[in-house]
Amino acid sequence: TVFDFPSFEPTSVATYPSTHLLVPMRKDILHRAVVYEGDATRQGTANTKWRAEVHGSGRKIRPQKGTGMARLGDKKSPMLRGGGVAFGPKPRDFATGLPRRVYDFAWRIALSYRYRQGELMLLDNETSLEHVPRESRERYLRELLVHNHLSNASGRTLFVTLQRQESLYEILEAGSMGKHALAKDVDDVDVKDLLELGRIVVEKRALHEIFMRHQSDL
Asked: Hey, which family's this protein in (predicted)?
């Protein structure tokens, strides 16, 4: 069923192949996709200095023999306070690999799961609030979400748009509206987003774009 925005009244019916919205659940594929996305977002910026990178003299601290004490090199030794760090972390890329066909399959599994659960709503038009005065948009959107059982009480809602709708995004990204809903465009959304929140409200054009991008395994 296709709904109108912002009235959320049913307007028509859309048909999609079973390979797009009736894909059987595969938790293993979803897990691989979520881990793959998480690894790609890790910063990997932790950094320590090895003895060659620590500032200081290279003079040997004490003679090799004759003192009755352990052998030591310069003061940059990892065994001394203020010296280098042995086997410490260095900047690295945590990104892992995942075949494109598996990742595209995971997208359609996630969408199919939300569809079977009745948690996928398709909008016929753009999620724009340009028709609402700027000073009233936050109150209008809050009441709209509560009335249609899309607010925090029913689980946060994810709005997926084809392009960034500033009138909607600026309200959800400011103040306390973020606890009720979240908005992302097709370039920013991922599989984890499709599984996290309580309900997905997606523009028809955005869903078509997602299917076009993620069907390499078909």
From this structure: Belongs to the universal ribosomal protein uL4 family.
Q: Read off the tokens for 27.
A: 């938790």
Report how far Cα 15 is from the mean position of its chain's Cα atoms. Answer: 28
- Write down the domain spans for the chain: 2-42+95-214, 46-93
Enter the pTM of the model: 0.84
pLDDT tens column, 51-86:
999 999 999 999 999 999 999 999 999 999 999 999
In words, the CATH class of domain 2-42+95-214 is alpha beta
Distances (CA, A) of 23 to 55, 110, 157: 59, 9, 22
Task: Please tell me the total number of residues recorded for the chain in this structure.
Answer: 218
> Are 23 and 109 within 8 A, CB to CB?
yes
**What integer pLDDT is reported at residue 173 of this predicted model?**
86
Q: What is the 3-state secondary structure (H, E, C) of 149-177?
A: CCCHHHCCEEEEECCCCHHHHHHHCCCCH
HSE on the CB side for 19, CA within 13 Å?
Answer: 9
Q: C-alpha 146: how far from its chain's center?
A: 25
- Within the chain, which residues score under 50 in pLDDT? none
**What is the model's pLDDT at position 51?**
93
